[in-house]
Structure formats: C-alpha cells, structure tokens
Amino acid sequence: MNWDDMRLFLAVARAESLTGAGRALRLDPATLGRRIARLEDGLGTALFVRSPRGYGLTEAGERLMARAVQAEQALTEGAEELRGQEGQLTGSVRIGAPDGVANYLLPQVAAAICDANPGLEVQIVALPRVFNLSRREADMAIAVSPPETGRLTVQRITDYRLHLVAHRDYLERHPPIRGLDDLRTHRIVGYIPDMIFDSELDYLSEIGVDRVTLASNSVAVQLNWLRAGAGLGIVHDFAMPAAPGLVKVLPGAVSLRRSFFLIRHGDDRKLARLTRFAGLLSDGIRAEVARLEAQFA
C-alpha cells in the first residue's frame, strides 16, 4: 500500500462517488474505479459498498479512513516543518457551515486569514445541515448548537443576534405593525418547516408564527426575498449590511440570541496547524460579528 492509494481512497470516501472524487483529483472516474478495486484486492477486503446512490464505506473502510486521515494530517504537518514555515499556515483547510455564516461572515474572515498566510487554501462548504466530521466531510464545522454525540471537541465562538425585519418599501405598502398579532395579516418569509435541521433555527415558532408564505432552506434566498420587499422575516443582524433598506420591526418584542460553535474531530486536538487555524477563524468570526452588528445596534 502506498500514499497515492490512500489519497484516492480518501477522495472517494469523502465524495461518496467516483464522479465527485474524479473531479477533485482530475482523474477519469473509470480509472479511479479500477484503482479502488485494485486496492481492495490487495487488502483482501471490500472498502466500499456500491449502490446507485454512490460509494459508502464498509466497516473495514471506516477503520482504514481513520488511519488514512491521521497519515494525511501527519504528512501535512511534516511538510510545513520541513519548509521552515512554522510562522505561516499552508495547505488546505475545509470548513463546513450553515449558509448564513458561510455567506455573510466566512468570506471576509477567510480572506483575511489567507492574506496573512499566502500558502493557505480555504474551502467553504455551505450546506444547511449538520456535517459529519467522522467521515471527514470537513476539517472543522460551524454549528448553531453543540453536538451531543461523537468524538468531537466543541468551542463556543460567539453569540449573535437576530431580529424581525422588512424592507422599507414593504412597510410603506402594507398596514402598520404595532404588535405580534398584526403579523397574521402580513406575508412571512422563513425556513421550509420540515427542512429545519436544528431546533435553534425554528425562529418563527418562537414568536408564535405558524404559517410561512415564502419558504426556503437557504438564508441567502430568504434575505433576497426580504430585500425585494416580499414580506417580513427573521434575519441575522450581521447579514443586514448585505441588504440595504431592511429595518427592524418590533425590535422590543422580537429579539433573538443564538451562538456559533466550532466543532472539530477529537483526534485533531494535537494537530498544531489546524489548532492555529481554528484560533484565527474563531477570533475573526467574533470580531466580524461585533463589527457588523454594531452597524445596526
């Protein structure tokens, strides 16, 4: 077994398909499939379960993946030491995050970190769901609630605020809103109810709203509806600078507070490179939330 085999194995395990892995590796999927089959033959065990949905890891594949990830991380750390670049971060780091933080915080925070570390590559995977760090879908993830299971380390990054908002144009065209009861006669923008993947995101039920007229699982789509004057919805304060014209509605009655958590695999605690990056990421998010929220205090 050589490292090139492990590199291909990790790519397929993470993409859960030959097509996705081939695209990342710039390798023909058929060639990749033959290489994986040859690896399995050499090891004398199946590493993947093939199905129309893709490639899923077998129990043996799960065990090998844990070891392969450790080897990958050790190689990255060793390469940095040999380059004598302990003062700078290099290589690639993948962050998984809900699309709110991915759209309105991570771009500027990651860009600033890369400015100070020119050899670093940052990948942001913006998906409205919980990330599986055990399968190494990402090196670390940001979540709105701490996980209850798994070999994970959790660090609270910062609190953030959300308010009910609407565009000035919408408010001028519709009846005044003097209390929560008035919301019944207004069009509401929010999440698709059965696609809310974390109870912390069920904002509207917290204020007694049970009907969403314009719904999306994407924060960016919701914000664009509100920016277009389509209705009222709950928005992160830090996202409001991206949508000029939005104003808070009933700020005394509707003011929510949530937290961001940085989640890492438990085995990564000894990896200096990822630990340093995690520190920079947390500091950057904390500062950016404070800066953006101050504009709408």
TrEMBL record:
It holds the Pfam family HTH_1. Residues 1-58 form the HTH lysR-type domain. SUPFAM superfamilies: Periplasmic binding protein-like II, Winged helix' DNA-binding domain. Keywords: DNA-binding, Transcription, Transcription regulation. GO terms for molecular function: DNA-binding transcription factor activity; sequence-specific DNA binding. One of its GO terms (biological process) is DNA-templated transcription. PANTHER family: HTH-TYPE TRANSCRIPTIONAL REGULATOR, TRANSCRIPTIONAL REGULATORY PROTEIN. Belongs to the LysR transcriptional regulatory family. This is LysR family transcriptional regulator. It comes from Rhodovulum marinum.
